[in-house]
Structures are given as C-alpha cells and as structure tokens.
Amino acid sequence: MEKNKEYQQYQIKFNVPPHTGKELDYIKQCIEAQKICGDGVFTKKCNVWFEERTQAKKCLLTTSCTHATELAAILLDIKEGDEVIMPSFTFVSTADAFVLRGAKAVFVDIRPDTMNIDETKIEAAVTEKTKAIVPVHYAGVACEMDTIMEIAKKHDLYVVEDAAQGVMATYKGRALGTIGDLGCYSFHETKNYSMGEGGALLMRDDRFIEMAEIVREKGTDRSRFLRGQIDKYTWQEVGSSYLPSDMNAAYLYAQLEIADEINQARRKIWDTYYAGLKPLADAGKLELPVVPEGCVHNAHMFYVKAHDQEERTALIDHLKANNILSVFHYIPLHSAPAGKKYGRFAGEDVYTTKESERLTRLPLFYGLTEEQTAYIVDKVKEFYR
Ligand SMILES: *Cc1c(COP(=O)(O)O)cnc(C)c1O
Question: How far apart, in whole angstroms, are the C-alpha atoms of residue 211 and residue 157?
Fold first, then answer.
C-alpha cells in the first residue's frame, strides 16, 4: 500500500512544456485581431525582445531551429562539395541543414568535460573545402568560442552557432548565438522557452539581414513591402517559408515576459541536483556537468555520467522503477546510417562514443517541484548505495 501511494505521488515526467498562464489570452488576442499568419504583433515583440536581450543586430523567429539552420546554410551559400565542421554528439538537425544543401558533415571529437566540440581538434579537420564551423552549445554551456572564432578568422570560415539549447546563456558576457556570424535558437517544447515548434535566427551584424528576410519569406522582398519601403514585392532569390504563425509567437511571448523567473527556477533545480549529487561525484561514483569559467549556463539540462553503458541502463531502469523518467541521447551522428553516408569523422573518436554511452538526463522543467527534485536525488543516491 505504502509503495502504491508513492507510485501515485511520483509520476515524474522527463519534460513538461513551459506554460505561464498567459498564453491563451495572447493567442486569443491574435484571433480577435484577425491576424494569425506570420510576422504579426507577437512575432515582432519576440524579435525585439531577443534583440534587446542578446544585443544581436537582428533576430527573426522561424518555424524551428532546424529551419533557422537551413536558412543559415542558404545564406552562406553552402553547396555540393563543401564541408562543414561540427561535433558528432549532437541532434541530427545540426548536420541535416547543411547536408540538405549538398555539403559533407565533418565530425570532430568532443571534450569529455563539457561534451562540446573539442576546439583543439578543429584545425586539423579544416580542408580546402571547409566552409563553416558549427559549434553546438551542449546543455546551454558555451563552447570555447574565442578559440573557435580565431580558427575561423585564420582560415576564412563562417561560424554558425547551434544555440538551440543556449537561450539565456552567455560566454564571457555575450549571449550564445551572437558570437558567430549566425546563431540558431530552438523553441521546441523540450527547450527552456517554447512555442511548440519554433526557433530563431540571430544575426550579429548587418551583413545577412536583408537576404535573411528574403529567404525566410519564400525568396521575396515582402518584409520590405510590409514596412512600406517598396510598393510591390517580387521573387528575388531562392527561399522557403520559415516564418511561424503569430499564434505560436504569442505562446512564446508569454514566457519571455517572465524569462528571468523561468531561468532562475531552472537554475535552482540544477543547483539542487548538483549539491545533492556532489557527494557521489566526490566519492567517484558518477560524474556531474562541468561549467567552465566565463560560461553562464541556463540550466537547460542536468545530466549525470555513469561508469559505462551497462551502469547507465541500470540507473535508468532503477529510476523508472521509481516512476522517474530519465533519458539518454545522442547516438553519435557518425555512427548512424545517414551520418555514414553524408559525413565523416575527422581524427579519432576518443570521447564521442564513450562519453555519449555514459550520459543520462534527469527531469528538468519549469514547474518541477523541490520535493520532486529531492526525491530524484534520493533515488539516484539509492542506486549507488
Ligand atoms: C533541439 C535541438 C535542435 C532542433 O531544434 P528544433 O527547433 O526542434 O528544430 C537542433 N540542435 C540542437 C542541439 C537541439 O538541441
């Protein structure tokens, strides 16, 4: 009976999409204003919010981070024969967006501490064909951007930051997504701030703004038309439809209004996990995330690393038996069927596979209670007892 009670009390999901309570009201405002297509009032509010917050020259909401990255690949004129350097330990979209344009994904090993691309191994992967470097800020912890930007400058390469997980995180005081030429955010329901499906393209300077507006609007100069700068709009370039409905933006805006509160709540959960599990890490039972000096993270995720895959499976099973859903990712791209077809690993896979097999993500979402967090810490400790 006692166990059954506990079962009902603790059905802890891995993720619950953020919801502040104002979303429906804002969506209703779109409907009442009879403006539900893209680039309405809420889309503009979100764009401006990010421009002010991140100091990006321009932010454009998109239908996903995948699409923001595709848009970036079009802007950089990535084509057949080009190579793009990125980690193998990432979500498929990092590679897909460039492969879609005919490029080859060149995978570089990660650092075992942050799980980010190892900046010291990038230069050896640069060839005549290399066009861009795509650092992925895993878990909202910045890659070593100073080094990456130097390499890019030296070899005349673009940098596109996959900052899908990096909203509200910084590197040496600069918002992730605004350091490279282009930056991509995700507002998928698993991210810190969400609109169901959605993303944004951030631009550091003027260079790509006009073309980005055109590509995002089916290759037309409709954005300039809507601003009254021209009296008719026409097909200018190749493009696609990368602008989200204003109803989705309305959902997102409700969270941006309390972005700091959401960030603090997530950080508190992260800190509780860290403090609670530190003794286990000190005893050599598991490993905890590392946040290098100069990086301010956004508590996008909390992960632990077991000794090996077998121990990880047992940990996930133990948590599941206690009604806690924890998950692992990613299957390294270079080992996946499409990764073999469209990519290659440059150098040696010292850490990518090994570290990915040890990692487990614990539940972390806006609304996870202190009591639940403490319970999860207890159950991890129980596993290692
Ligand atoms: C979530 C995520 C994406 C994809 O974001 P979507 O908005 O779902 O397209 C890309 N890269 C990374 C690292 C992600 O975590």
Answer: 19
Task: Assess whether the C-beta atom of 91 lies below 6 angstroms from ligand 1.
Answer: yes
Q: How many other CB atoms are found less than 10 A from the CB of residue 24? A: 12
Ordered alpha helix ranges (H), 36-134: 41-54, 65-75, 92-99
- Asked whether the beta carbons of 63 and 43 are under 8 A apart, the reply is no
* Separation CA 18–CA 300 (nearest Å): 12
- Where do the domains of the chain lie, and which CATH numbers do they carry? 2-13+259-384 (3.90.1150.10), 23-256 (3.40.640.10)
* Tens digits of residue pLDDT in 90-148: 999 999 999 999 999 999 999 999 999 999 999 999 999 999 999 999 999 999 999 99
**Gap between the Cα atoms of 262 and 252, Å rounded:** 12
Rounded-to-integer distance, Cα 258 and Cα 203, Å: 24
Q: What is the pTM of this model?
A: 0.96
What's the gap in Å between 164 CA and the centre of ligand 1? 5
Spell 276-293 as b/e; 16+ CB within 10 A means b. Answer: bbeebeeeebbbbbebee
Q: Which of 15, 63, 65, 197 for a ligand 1 pocket mutation test, highest count of atoms within 8 Å of Cβ?
A: 65
66 pocket-lining for ligand 1 (C-beta < 6 Å):
yes
Q: Whose CA is nearest to atom 5 of ligand 1?
A: 65
Question: What are the tokens at 352?
Answer: 């990518």
Give CA angle at 110 (105, 113), nearest 5°.
160
pLDDT in tens, 300-335: 999 999 999 999 999 999 999 999 999 999 999 999
Q: Is the pLDDT of residue 4 over 90?
A: no
Residue 319 φ/ψ region, left for φ over 0, alpha for ψ in the -120 to 50 degree band, beta for the rest: alpha
